[in-house]
Amino acid sequence: MDRLGERAEIQRSAPVDNTLAEFPADAIVRPTESAATHAPVTAVFFVQSLDTLNEALMLWMEAHQLHRPVRIAALVEDGTINLSSYKAQRAFNRIDTTAFFRGDEAAAIDRIERLAFRAA
Q1: Are 71 and 40 in contact, with CB atoms under 8 Å apart?
Q2: Under CATH, what is the fold of the domain 8-117?
Q3: What is Dmax (Cα atoms) for the chain?
């Protein structure tokens, strides 16, 4: 909130919109008009298990199927999940970004910020 709150509306535990309601993200970053980036909505998933990473991947797949301009980010809590599994690799290779939080918090938030405010 400190870093993004002045340039975006932040929603917790929310869907991108009603048409994608079955895939709620842990945080939605919706740049404001004054941010002037013309960036689409960014859905951020706080990943503590492969299930959450799969939710991010399912939203990415559905948004692409519907030709929706949505960015998907995984903010991985730490390295305790099996990051080398095929499921994790598939998600990492498709969603828009992944950042690892614990131990490098500022850089992880920087990565989400760059994605959320990059022009479309």
Answers
A1: yes
A2: Restriction Endonuclease (3.40.91)
A3: 41
- Predicted pLDDT of residue 105: 92
pLDDT tens-place string over residues 14-62: 999 999 999 999 999 998 876 556 789 999 999 999 999 999 999 999 9
In this structure, are residues 95 and 56 in contact, taking their beta carbons and an 8 Å threshold? yes
Kindly report the pTM of this predicted structure: 0.91
Residue ranges with strand state E in 4-118:
8-14, 25-31, 41-47, 70-76, 97-100
| CA angle centred on 111, ends 63 and 43, rounded to 5° | 25
How many residues are listed for the chain in this entry? 120
